[in-house]
Design goal:
With about 280 residues, this protein is an alpha/beta fold. The protein has 2 domains: about 30-115, Rossmann fold, CATH 3.40.50.10860; about 140-265, Rossmann fold (3-Layer(aba) Sandwich). It is built from 10 helices and 9 strands. The strands form 3 sheets. The chain has a 4-stranded parallel β-sheet with strand order 5-4-6-7. Strands 2-1-3 form a 3-stranded parallel β-sheet, sandwiched between helices. A two-stranded antiparallel sheet has the order 8-9. A hairpin with a 5-residue loop joins β8 and β9. It starts with 7 loop residues before the first helix and ends with a helix. The structure holds the ligand Nc1nc2c(c(=O)[nH]1)N[C@@H](CN(C=O)c1ccc(C(=O)N[C@@H](CCC(=O)O)C(=O)O)cc1)CN2. Ligand LMY7XDAE binds near residues 48 and 141. It comes from Paenibacillus crassostreae. Catalyzes the oxidation of 5,10-methylenetetrahydrofolate to 5,10-methenyltetrahydrofolate and then the hydrolysis of 5,10-methenyltetrahydrofolate to 10-formyltetrahydrofolate. Keywords: Amino-acid biosynthesis, Histidine biosynthesis, Hydrolase, Methionine biosynthesis, Multifunctional enzyme, NADP, One-carbon metabolism, Oxidoreductase, Purine biosynthesis.
């Protein structure tokens, strides 16, 4: 039997329509959530993501600013802009689109964003709060993964989750969030021996390794939930996940597609973080 497909697009639309009402309510109270996005250079994929963030702000009734800077912008000028936005009252969230050109130190820029405006959840203070389980702005893609699983009606508590990939922006935070939801978590990475054997023990398998179609049916226990965070652009221009969707869906339980799975949740969670930041700033939550 073919698996149930978890539609990130549909779940994302549901969350956004709920958010629209919340924003209207906030605006009536004199608060308009504001997001500033900074794009350095002309990476084509980044340009698309930034446009989609701008559109999401417009659709949800947020105030937005997009700062498009030339690829040779100095780190000093970028930091000066971040600092200005840190002090700008109309801005509740600041996002610097990644990747940055190689002459700019990503860490220095992330560290310069005010913790309470770090809607990417990448600042070390927000990361630390995530580790110790305190309230923080959660990184968008990992938060989107948890939201997808829950909204698909899947129980996380007590399940064995296997996360493949240990990146700072997906693998590590997603494993912490799964633990917070009371899953037992195993992490696998490029040096893991017997990865397929471990993956086959998962009730929930989250894959974020950046290798197109790498995970085939031999990695999946029949009926397991499969969440594909991979986004790989193939030579033919098509987008592929890390999971070989066609073969895996024949054995798995609920599974996310690429595109249309985790991707759309990333921007929706960014909007949610901006809303949270605005409410906190105005002491409305
Ligand atoms: N500062 C950040 N930079 C980057 C992040 C991030 O979370 N913060 N994540 C990615 C890019 N990204 C958002 O910025 C992002 C990627 C993909 C999608 C998405 O909706 N994908 C669609 C397919 C879109 C396509 O055809 O290319 C899908 O999967 O259905 C949204 C946001 C790196 N940089």
């Amino acid at each position: 039997m073919t698996a149930m497909i978890i539609s990130g697009k549909q779940i994302s639309d549901e969350i956004r329509s709920f958010m629209i009402e919340e924003v209207k309510d906030l605006v009536r109270k004199g608060v308009t959530p504001g997001l500033a996005v900074i794009l350095v250079g002309e990476d084509p994929a980044s340009q698309v993501y930034v446009r989609n963030k701008e559109k999401a702000c417009h659709d949800l009734g947020f105030y937005s600013e997009v700062h498009r800077l030339p690829g040779d912008t100095s780190q000093e000028n970028l930091l000066a802009l971040v600092n200005k936005l840190n002090h700008q009252e109309s801005i509740n969230g600041i996002l610097v689109q990644l990747p940055l050109p190689s002459h700019i130190e990503e860490k220095a820029v992330i560290n310069a964003i005010a913790v309470e405006k770090d809607v990417d959840g990448f600042h070390p203070v927000n990361v630390g709060n995530l580790v110790i389980g305190d309230d923080s702005l959660l990184p968008c893609t990992p938060a989107g993964v948890i939201e997808l699983i829950k909204r698909a009606g899947i129980e996380i508590s007590g399940k064995h989750a296997v996360v493949i990939g240990r990146s700072n922006i997906v693998g590590k935070p997603v494993s912490l969030l799964l633990q917070r939801e009371n899953a037992t978590v195993t992490m696998c990475h490029s040096r893991t021996a017997n990865m397929a054997e471990i993956a086959r023990q998962a009730d929930i398998l989250v894959v974020a390794i950046g290798r197109a179609n790498f995970i085939d049916a031999s990695y999946v226990k029949p009926g397991a939930v499969v969440i594909d965070v991979g986004m790989n652009r193939l030579d033919n221009g098509k987008l592929a996940g890390d999971v070989d969707f066609e073969s895996v869906k024949e054995v798995s339980g609920p599974i996310t597609p690429v595109p249309g799975g985790v991707g759309p949740m990333t921007i929706t969670m960014l909007m949610k973080n901006t809303l949270i930041a605005a409410k906190r700033h105005h002491r409305l939550s």
